[in-house]
Design brief:
The chain is an alpha+beta fold and 419 residues long. The chain has 3 domains: 169 residues, Mannose-Binding Protein A, Chain A (Roll), CATH 3.10.100; 142 residues, Roll (Mannose-Binding Protein A, Chain A); 96 residues, Immunoglobulin-like (Sandwich), CATH 2.60.40. The protein contains 5 helices and 26 strands. Strands 1, 2, 3, 4, 5, 6, 7, 8 and 9 form a 9-stranded mixed beta sheet that branches. Strands 10-11-18-13-12 form a 5-stranded antiparallel beta sheet. A 4-stranded antiparallel beta sheet has the order 15-14-16-17, with helices on one face. The radius of gyration is 27 Å and the shape is globular.
Length: 419
């Protein structure tokens, strides 16, 4: 009698013989994690539920039950969500409509599979024939993310232990601004169904704001930033989207004097094959604006295009502008505090990238104004590498102070006012 047979027979007894073994397990949801390979977010929720309930649960989180469509994605899931606790994870596939015709709940192409030995079998020979229309990651026996088909049940039993079925929810690339730990900036893809030219996109982006940060067409100054924007904001859906690069009139063609609209140094480039070309291969001669390439696959490289051409959207980048940080002595302590008056909001975001400079001598301290007066009741959080490293209460003058900051990592401070 092999382990596989033991697993099936105990499951059947659990389902049909009303044998229940109680086992106390302390469960805790995982962190919500970004997979940099595809720009999707994932989180395991350690609550026992059926497959159908798992589908509904993830939908309630504006997500979907995880769909695993490549070996790379399998490796990421196993590395980050496989647990030594007594839990098994549902994935978003089923053949409940037509036996043997497996489909992802997202209607993605069914090409990659990772079935375990003798799977799928729909319970044939094990007493649950015709009921096994759903998939879980059965890492009790096979820790490499192998799949097993199983009925839609919240728990199963094996060798005196109760295992709980829990969901892993997956969020596709967000339409909302996403935060980069590398730059300390937020980025957002804006789709315009009727099309938009570069001049209009530049003006529209400059009028956008998020958390009191000012927007501009995205300026991509490193491979890491390019990869983050591409992976986090929709990958192939970004084809043709405008970026914040421009070649002034009179520049030497095709690659002379390209500039970022923010006046950042133009050093990193990611041109596609034979780009920039000023349109010579397409019968044009006036391509002076930057975009994600509209035809390369994948379109993470760049292309030059006539700035009056209509494209499906643009990428906006949010950061502190110079006008957002006025260095004035608002706390009347006799010292100009570069954190005063920056910015006036209930939730203030401070960064060491542009706008508000950090103190040369660590620790870091400062305050925030609300309607001209320091916020005096609240809490400050120091964020580094996307994690909360320190917390502190504002003092009577509304000042926060952190005793230790890693100089090698970008940081931000978030102030939350309490009533």
């Amino acid at each position: 009698m092999n382990n596989y047979f033991n697993k099936k027979t105990f499951l059947l007894c659990f389902l049909f013989c009303n044998i229940l073994v109680y086992y106390t397990v302390v469960l805790a949801d995982s962190n919500k994690l970004l997979n940099p390979q595809n720009g999707h977010y994932y989180q395991r929720f350690d609550q026992a539920m059926t497959w159908h309930d798992a589908v509904s649960f993830c939908e309630s989180k504006d997500a979907h039950l995880v769909t695993i469509t490549s070996q790379d994605e399998t490796s990421y899931i196993v590395q980050n969500f496989q647990s030594e606790k007594n839990i098994l994870c549902w994935i978003g596939a089923t053949d409940e409509v037509n036996e043997g015709e497996w489909k992802w709940i997202t209607n993605e192409e069914w090409s990659y599979t990772n079935w375990g030995s003798h799977e799928p079998n729909n319970g044939v020979g094990y007493g649950s024939e015709g009921m096994e229309h759903y998939i879980h990651l059965f890492w009790i026996y096979q820790p490499n993310g192998k799949w097993n088909d199983i009925p839609s049940v919240a728990t199963i039993g094996h060798q005196g232990v109760t295992y709980q079925h829990v969901p892993i929810c997956e969020w596709e690339a967000s339409e909302e601004p996403v935060y980069s730990q590398e730059t300390g900036h937020y980025y957002q893809a804006v789709r315009i169904d009727e099309g938009i030219n570069w001049n209009e996109a530049k003006e529209k982006a400059s009028k956008m704001s998020f958390r009191n940060l000012t927007g501009h067409l995205a300026t991509i100054t490193s491979q890491e930033e390019n990869d983050f924007v591409f992976n986090s904001l929709g990958k192939e859906s970004l084809a043709g989207y405008w970026l914040g690069g421009i070649q002034p009139d009179g520049s030497k063609e095709p690659d002379g004097n390209w500039q970022w609209i923010t006046n950042e140094i133009w050093s990193y480039t990611n041109w596609g094959t034979s780009e920039p070309n000023n349109g010579v291969h397409a019968g044009g001669d006036d391509e002076e604006a930057l975009q994600f390439h509209p035809t390369s696959s994948p379109p993470y490289t760049w292309n030059d295009l006539d700035k009056l051409g209509l494209m499906p959207g643009f990428v906006v980048e949010y950061e502190l502008g110079n006008s957002d940080c006025k260095i004035v002595d608002t706390d009347n302590d006799g010292v100009i505090d570069q954190w005063d008056n920056c910015p006036n909001t209930l939730e203030g975001l401070y960064t060491d990238k542009n706008g508000c400079p950090i103190n040369d001598n660590y620790p870091v301290s400062g305050n925030i104004l609300m309607e001209g007066h320091p916020v005096k009741q609240g809490k400050a959080m120091l964020i580094q590498s996307g994690e909360i490293h320190q917390n502190c209460q504002l003092d009577l003058n509304g000042v926060f102070k952190f005793n230790s900051v890693d100089k090698e990592k970008p940081f931000s401070v978030i102030i939350r006012r309490t009533k």
